[in-house]
C-alpha cells in the first residue's frame, strides 16, 4: 500500500518491524563526538595538505588555510544549529530535504555520498604510501594493502558501536599526541626562512627550489593563494560528518553543537602548527614537501634520522588510521539514512541483529570505494595509476564535498527564512552571513579546482555516479519512499517533533 505524495512520489506503508530491523544504539557523548569529528579530519594533517606548496608557496598555503578555515567556521556553525534542530542520522540529506524538498535532499545526500565513499579510498592511498615507505614494499602490491585495511576497519565498525567509538577515541588521542610530539621536536630544529621559504618560480611558471631559501612569502601571488584552496580543504575535510551520529548520540540537541565546535577549534590549532612547523624543519622544506606522500614522516626522519624510521613511520600512521576508521563509520550512516528513507535500495539500511550497526551499508560502501580504486588501477596500469590515483580520488572527494557544503549552507538560509518556528536549541553566532561566506568560498574553491588536470577525470567519475543513482531514484526509489524520521519531520514542516523508532 502506498501513500501518494507530490511530484509522483509515493510513500509506502511498511511492516511494523521495518524500523526495528534498522535500529541504532545510543552511546556517544560530547567527548566521543569530538573524537569522531577530529579523527575524521586528522589524516589531512599527516598527508595531502602539503601539495599546496607547489601552487602557492608557504604564504599561499597559510592564507589559503585561513580562508578555508573561515569557510568551515561558517559551515560548522550552520550545521551545529541544524543538527540540534533536526537530530536525524541523515544530516546533510535531512537538512536539505526539509529546506528544499525530496529532490534537493536526494542530490545533497548524493554529493555527501560521493565524499564519504571516496574519502576513505584517498586516505588508504596515503596509508599505503606510508606502509610502502616504512617496509620498502613494491608499489605493485598496493591493492593488497588497500583490501587488508578495508577488511580490518570495516570489521571494527561492524562489531559494535561502543567498540567503534572506543577505537575512534584511542586513535584520535594518539594521533594528536603524535602531532604534539612532532611540534615539540620541530621547534628546536626549525629554520623558517631557510626551509619554509625555499620555493621560487621557474621560467615555466612552476615551482623551483631555492637552495639557500629566503624566497618570497607569496611566490605565485594572489592567484597562487586561490589555486591552493583545494589543498587547504584537506586540513578540515569531513568535520561535517558529525551530525550523522545524531541517532547514536545520547543527547544530540545538547551535545552535537558542542562536539562539532570543539572539534573545529582543535583542528584550527593543529592546522596552523603543522603548516608552520613541518616545512620549517631543517633539511625538509616546502619544496620537498610539495610532492611528498608522507610529509610528517619526512619531518621525523630529518629530526631523528633513518635508524628508527620503521617505528616513526608506524607512529605517523596513526592519524591516517584515525580518519580511515571514522570516515568508514560516517559512510555507513550516510548510506543507511538514504536507504532507510527509500532513496537507496532499502535492504542497505538493515542493521546487525546483535551489534545494531549498519553493517550492510558499510560493507557495500567499502566495496564501491575499493572497486573504483581497482578499476582505475587496472585501467591505467600499476605505474601510472600509482602516480595519479590519489589525485583523481582526492578531486572526486573534494568536489563532492564542495557541492554538499553549498547545499547545506543554502539549506541553512532557507530554514532560517521559511521555518523560523522550528525549535533551535543552538543558534549559530555567524547566522546567515556565515552561511553566505561558506557558499562564496566553496564556489571559488571549485573554480580553482577545475584548473587541476586530474579534476576532469574525477568529475567524469562523479557524473557517472550521479547518473546511475538518479536513474535508480527516478525509476524506482521515488515510488518506494518510507516515512523515516527525516521524511516525517520534513512532511510536517518541522511541526512534528522528532521521534526515534
Automatic annotation (TrEMBL):
Subcellular location, principal: membrane
Pfam families xrefs: AA_permease_2 (PF13520)
Keyword Cell membrane appears in the UniProt entry: yes
Entries under Gene3D superfamilies matching the protein: Amino acid/polyamine transporter I (1.20.1740.10)
InterPro entries for the chain: AA/rel_permease1, APC_superfamily
Cellular component GO terms, alphabetical: plasma membrane
Keyword Transmembrane helix: yes
Protein keywords: Cell membrane, Membrane, Transmembrane, Transmembrane helix
UniProt protein name: Amino acid permease
Membrane disposition: Multi-pass membrane protein
PANTHER family for this protein: AMINO ACID TRANSPORTER-RELATED (PTHR42770), MEMBRANE PROTEIN (PTHR42770:SF7)
GO molecular function: transmembrane transporter activity
Membrane-spanning parts: 27-46, 58-80, 141-160, 167-186, 217-239, 260-282, 302-330, 360-380, 392-415, 427-447, 459-476
Amino acid at each position: 500500500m502506498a501513500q501518494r505524495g507530490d511530484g509522483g512520489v509515493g510513500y509506502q506503508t511498511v511492516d511494523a518491524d521495518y524500523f526495528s530491523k534498522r535500529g541504532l544504539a545510543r552511546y556517544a557523548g560530547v567527548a566521543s563526538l569530538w573524537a569522531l569529528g577530529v579523527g575524521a579530519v586528522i589524516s589531512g594533517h599527516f598527508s595531502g595538505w602539503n601539495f599546496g606548496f607547489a601552487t602557492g608557496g608557504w604564504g599561499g598555503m597559510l592564507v589559503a588555510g585561513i580562508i578555508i578555515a573561515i569557510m568551515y567556521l561558517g559551515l560548522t556553525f550552520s550545521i551545529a544549529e541544524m543538527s540540534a534542530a533536526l537530530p536525524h542520522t541523515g544530516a546533510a540529506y535531512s537538512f536539505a530535504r526539509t529546506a528544499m524538498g525530496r529532490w534537493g535532499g536526494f542530490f545533497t545526500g548524493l554529493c555527501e555520498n560521493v565524499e564519504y565513499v571516496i574519502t576513505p579510498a584517498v586516505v588508504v592511498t596515503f596509508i599505503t604510501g606510508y606502509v610502502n615507505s616504512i617496509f620498502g614494499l613494491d608499489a605493485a602490491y598496493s591493492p593488497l594493502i588497500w583490501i587488508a585495511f578495508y577488511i580490518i576497519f570495516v570489521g571494527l565498525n561492524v562489531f559494535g558501536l561502543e567498540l567503534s567509538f572506543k577505537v575512534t577515541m584511542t586513535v584520535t588521542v594518539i594521533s594528536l599526541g603524535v602531532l604534539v610530539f612532532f611540534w615539540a621536536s620541530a621547534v628546536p630544529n626549525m629554520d623558517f626562512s631557510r626551509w619554509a621559504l625555499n620555493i621560487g618560480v621557474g621560467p615555466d611558471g612552476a615551482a623551483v627550489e631555492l637552495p639557500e631559501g629566503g624566497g618570497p612569502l607569496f611566490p605565485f601571488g594572489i592567484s597562487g593563494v586561490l589555486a591552493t584552496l583545494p589543498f587547504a580543504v584537506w586540513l578540515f575535510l569531513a568535520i561535517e560528518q558529525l551530525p550523522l551520529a545524531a541517532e547514536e548520540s545520547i543527547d544530540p540537541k545538547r551535545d552535537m553543537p558542542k562536539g562539532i565546535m570543539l572539534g573545529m577549534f582543535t583542528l584550527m590549532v593543529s592546522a596552523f602548527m603543522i603548516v608552520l612547523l613541518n616545512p620549517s624543519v631543517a633539511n625538509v622544506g616546502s619544496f620537498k614537501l610539495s610532492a611528498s606522500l608522507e610529509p610528517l614522516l619526512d619531518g621525523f626522519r630529518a629530526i631523528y634520522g633513518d635508524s628508527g624510521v620503521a617505528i616513526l613511520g608506524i607512529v605517523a600512521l596513526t592519524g591516517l588510521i584515525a580518519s580511515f576508521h571514522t570516515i568508514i563509520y560516517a559512510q555507513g550512516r550516510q548510506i543507511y539514512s538514504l536507504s532507510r528513507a527509500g532513496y537507496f535500495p532499502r535492504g542497505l539500511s538493515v542493521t546487525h541483529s546483535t551489534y545494531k550497526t549498519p553493517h550492510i551499508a558499510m560493507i557495500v560502501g567499502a566495496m564501491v570505494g575499493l572497486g573504483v580504486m581497482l578499476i582505475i588501477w587496472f585501467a591505467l596500469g600499476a605505474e601510472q595509476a600509482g602516480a595519479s590515483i590519489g589525485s583523481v580520488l582526492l578531486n572526486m572527494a573534494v568536489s563532492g564535498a564542495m557541492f554538499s557544503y553549498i547545499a547545506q549552507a543554502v539549506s541553512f538560509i532557507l530554514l532560517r527564512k521559511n521555518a523560523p518556528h522550528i525549535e533551535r536549541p543552538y543558534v549559530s553566532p555567524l547566522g546567515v552571513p556565515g552561511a553566505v561566506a561558506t557558499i562564496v568560498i566553496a564556489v571559488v574553491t571549485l573554480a580553482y579546482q577545475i584548473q587541476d588536470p586530474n579534476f576532469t577525470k574525477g568529475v567524469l567519475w562523479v557524473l557517472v555516479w550521479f547518473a546511475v543513482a538518479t536513474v535508480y531514484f527516478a525509476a524506482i526509489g521515488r515510488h518506494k519512499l518510507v516515512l523515516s524520521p527525516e521524511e516525517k519531520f520534513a512532511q510536517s514542516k518541522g511541526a512534528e517533533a522528532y521521534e526515534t523508532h
